[in-house]
């Protein structure tokens, strides 16, 4: 169903459509619940398959879910212990996919799913995915869909606000992928895409779909890795897992909240944010005040109007309850730099700036919150993607993972765009 109550549909249609007709976001009518003691799956793909089965039960892809999970989740996700009992702390490494950020999980699942669903359709025209990105989404989506039949991807990113290596990952694909450098902020990119969606002619002629973190097809596999981490921790330590999730548009964090609501052994959830204070301000004042985003070192979290908040409000409508559901910890750029330096010096660990906000949150927990409890911090990207920020802080060159090195060898191309719908229309008109 839609968060605004105006559209009911089945899961696969909701994923193909992206945004609901009434402008709301699709959410499951209800969340299934699981008992961790009798849950069978061990690997991420097995856990995803088992956990997602009720969601796909009455859809055309019910029989192909296992194959989709194995196809999409074919790289490691590790819950790596950093310190042992009685105070287990682990890092949930989500960056071992093709573009070295957690968004590969959702993007690859969505691509594997859409390819199979579109193969069943009779309309021969390709579907066009428009994706706004503050850095990692676009690269992950482009990589996941590149050269797949029946789908095209338009990537929109804010000029000058993504790292050089991120920009390379956005613009190196060609074929069925086009990259647009927008003269504006991430919020402008997102608004532009929303406008395109609400334009019936454009939507129909291009068969528009979304692949942002607003797409359920990206959120659901993210629930799977939080559930997997909680189960692995539970089996290892016999404790519920407290989760710190670096947060921008609230996709990764909402997936964690849904996982806990489905009965997976997660206790507290802390949202680590950068200097974009919309969420922490809301939790302290009760007043929801979206605002323009601010540029920070953790650029993939530079979001002033997190869209997935609408889903959280839908799940937890009461402010008092919502305050019990999550906490938020803001970190400014100085805090990010200091955390990267400290954890390298003390533990030899190298974090990307987003992951550093999470470890900053951990270090600032009250001692009583840590004692005897298990915590994890999501590592959302490999630090080699943000080498211009991280290398000067640690005084050392970061090794580039092989998949990223391959991408960085490809030539790049992009189209400049002003952030208005007419400019977008004329840029897309020849793409039919
Ligand atoms: C996208 C992203 C985030 C923020 O994730 P949301 O789901 O938007 O909250 C954090 N870190 C990295 C590296 C990202 O790419």
Structural class designation: alpha/beta
Order of helices and strands: HHHEEHEHEHEHHEHEHEHHHEHHHEHHEH
Spatial order of strands in the largest sheet: 1-2-10-7-8-9
Low-pLDDT regions: none
Sketch the major β-sheet. Answer: 6 strands, mixed
CATH class of one domain: Alpha Beta
Output the radius of gyration: 20 Å
| Oligomeric state of the chains in view | single chain
Helix content: 40-55%
Summarize model confidence as the mean pLDDT: 93
How far apart are the termini?
A: 31 Å
Share of residues in strands:
5-15%
Bound molecules: pyridoxal-5'-phosphate
Give the tally of β-strands: 11
Short description:
The chain is of the alpha/beta class and 432 residues long. It is 44% helix and 14% strand.
Write up this protein.
The protein is of the alpha/beta class and 432 residues long. It has a domain at 71-102 and 217-400: Rossmann fold (3-Layer(aba) Sandwich), CATH 3.40.50. The protein contains 19 helices and 11 strands. The strands form 2 sheets. The protein has a 6-stranded mixed beta sheet with strand order 1-2-10-7-8-9. Strands 6-3-4-5-11 form a 5-stranded parallel beta sheet, with helices on both faces. Helix 5 links the parallel strand 3 (127-132) and strand 4 (151-158). Helix 9 crosses helix 10 (251-261). The two termini are 31 Å apart. Pyridoxal-5'-phosphate is lined by residues 101, 103, 135-136, 213, 246-253, 300-301, 352, 354, 380-381.
């Amino acid at each position: 169903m839609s968060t605004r109550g105006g559209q009911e549909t089945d899961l696969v249609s909701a994923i193909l459509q992206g945004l609901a007709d009434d402008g709301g976001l699709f959410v499951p009518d209800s969340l299934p619940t699981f008992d961790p003691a009798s849950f069978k799956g061990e690997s991420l793909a097995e856990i995803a398959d088992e956990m997602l089965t009720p969601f796909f039960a009455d859809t055309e892809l019910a029989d192909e879910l296992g194959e989709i999970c194995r196809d999409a989740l074919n790289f490691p996700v590790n819950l790596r212990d950093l310190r042992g009992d009685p105070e287990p702390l682990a890092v949930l490494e989500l960056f071992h996919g093709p573009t070295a950020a957690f968004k590969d999980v959702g993007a690859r699942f969505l691509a594997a799913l859409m390819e199979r669903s579109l193969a069943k359709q009779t309309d021969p025209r390709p579907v066009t995915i428009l994706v706004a990105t503050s850095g990692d989404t676009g690269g992950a989506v482009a990589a996941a869909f590149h050269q797949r039949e029946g789908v095209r991807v338009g990537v929109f990113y804010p000029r000058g606000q993504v790292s050089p290596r991120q920009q390379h990952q956005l613009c190196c694909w060609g074929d069925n992928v086009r990259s647009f450098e927008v003269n504006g902020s991430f919020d402008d990119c997102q608004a532009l895409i929303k406008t395109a969606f609400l334009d019936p002619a454009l939507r129909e002629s291009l068969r528009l779909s979304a692949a942002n973190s607003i797409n359920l097809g990206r959120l659901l596999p993210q629930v799977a890795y939080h559930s997997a981490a909680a189960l692995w921790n539970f089996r290892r330590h016999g404790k519920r897992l407290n989760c710190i999730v670096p947060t921008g548009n609230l996709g990764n964090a909402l997936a964690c909240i849904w996982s806990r609501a489905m009965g997976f052994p997660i206790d507290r959830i802390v949202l680590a944010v950068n200097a974009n204070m919309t969420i922490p301000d809301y939790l302290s004042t009760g007043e929801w005040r979206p605002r323009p985003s601010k540029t920070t070192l953790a650029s993939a979290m530079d979001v002033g109007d997190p869209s997935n908040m609408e889903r959280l409000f839908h799940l937890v409508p009461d402010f008092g309850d919502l305050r019990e559901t999550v906490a938020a910890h803001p970190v400014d750029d100085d805090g990010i730099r200091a955390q990267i330096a400290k954890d390298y010096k003390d533990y030899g660990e190298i974090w990307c700036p987003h992951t550093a906000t999470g470890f900053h949150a951990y270090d600032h927990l009250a001692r009583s919150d840590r004692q005897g409890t298990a915590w994890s911090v999501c590592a959302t990207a490999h630090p080699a993607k943000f080498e211009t920020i991280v290398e000067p802080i640690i005084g050392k060159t970061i090794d580039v993972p092989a998949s990223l090195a391959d991408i960085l060898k490809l030539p790049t191309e992009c189209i400049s765009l002003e952030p208005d719908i007419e400019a977008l229309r004329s840029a897309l008109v020849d793409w039919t």
